[in-house]
Amino acid sequence: MKMVSAIIKHFRLDEVRDSLSKLGVQGMTAIEVKGFGRQKGHMEVYRGVEYEVKFLPKVKIEVAVADEKLDNVLNSILENAKTGEIGDGKIFVYNLQDVIRIRTGERGEEAI
Amino acid sequence: MKRIFVLTLLALTFCSSLAFAEEAVAPTASIGLIASNIWMMVATFLVFIMHLGFASLEAGLTRSKNTVNILFKNTLIPAIGLLTYAWFGFNLMYPGTFNGFFGFAGFGLPFPTVDGGFLDLSYNEGYTYWTDFLFQGMFAATAATIVSGAVAERIKLSSFLVFSTVFVGLVYPIVGSWKWGGGWLDNMGFYDFAGSTLVHSVGGWGALIGAIMLGARKGKYVDGKIKPIPGHSMPLATIGVFLLWLGWFGFNGGSVLSADPALVSLTLVTTCIAASAGIVGAMFTTWTISGKPDLSMVLNGCLAGLVGITAGADQMGLGSAFLIGLIAGGLVVVSVIMIDKLKVDDPVGAISVHLVGGIWGTLAVGLFGQMAGAKQFGIQLVGVGAYGVTTAVAVFIIFSVIKATMGLRVSEEEEFEGLDVSEHGLEAYHLALSPAAKDSGI
Fold first, then answer.
1. How close A67 gets to chain B, by Cα (Å)?
2. What ipTM is given for this predicted complex?
């Protein structure tokens, strides 16, 4: 099992969610986050003074997937989160040791 | 037996007072007085709602960790203002015949009566005594509110409340009596229709001296550079400015002191033209200087236009009102930037709106409209100077005494944590993880 964690642009969230649902992904967590990457920050002006916003708002999604679904999920995120502009985000993949459904106590892929 | 005696006595007293009432009939109000008094009461409601406007604007232009504190101050100010005004402020500001500098007609509200204890309606042709008190009382509190914005996010609540009580209770009515109470500046021919100087500059001087004596918010000026501290809610700030604009219909429209159809409607027109021109003036100025049109500056521009027209709202034609507002809008943007460069930290722009706008509006009476002329301009200058020096010195003394006795500022730690938690133990916005939300089962 893998944990796929992707930082994406806000306005791509719906497309990414829908495409993952079509692949049979049944759960996802979305978190409002702030951070910086190569895009760095941007300049804003408040009452005549320019200042750098050093952290930009993004959405982080987290999806637990069975190994055999991993490639499809990654491709789907790549396809739907991409705008081609700087700041599209990144995908991180981790090994996932276990998953437990709290209601039933099921473990492993059953619980995904 | 004793009881029957008392009852009889009561009955007799009652009968005799009834008989007395038959002789002294309540005075009948003319249609004119009824209409005028209704307008003056409506104007009072409108000035009242300006306090919500100030509260929203200040909350919006400051950080969310200080919102409860801002709202608390803005709730207390009208309360302190009205109570002190009822107790002694009204009679300090309108002492009747006096030496022109200081007079006092006594504590409380000794309303005028006619035979039978009825309110004397001949008090004024435009309003009753009670309307007069409440309308002027609503005005009084606005002067203290102006200071609140400039000292926001770092002043100790208790110190601010003490300051406000003295400022609105003593300073405002005493200097106010010089003009509106029929004092020396009134005799000299100084003109301030609805308070560009008496309310706004007086509050503005308080804001300036207060902001200087308190020092800047932590993190505002670092290594000689200005670090903007953006307000947490532009929607709240915008709601506040629209409420203030609405309130100004009463602030200026009510200052006609009657429902005179021509004068009230003209005043509302000049007021709105100046507000609109202030917005446009600020927009062009901020867009030119910063490269981006700043909403917070345009909101300040609207208020500056309103403050600017306030001294001569009944004296101006459309063109004059437009120019006064336009210049006020431009001035406020330049002033906000300049004051920031001088490292005087004014989170909401109160000094620029009320002091700079107020001085401009007061001088504009000598430059535009029916009273324009070199002599009038000179008198207006004297008024601006007299109010400036007196108020600044008074505020300096009050803040110095408070600083020496109870301290002015919250500790650095409290400032970082936010005044909501450190002063009030309460947050303005409860998010899902806060204890309150958890207990309610969200």
1. 34
2. 0.78
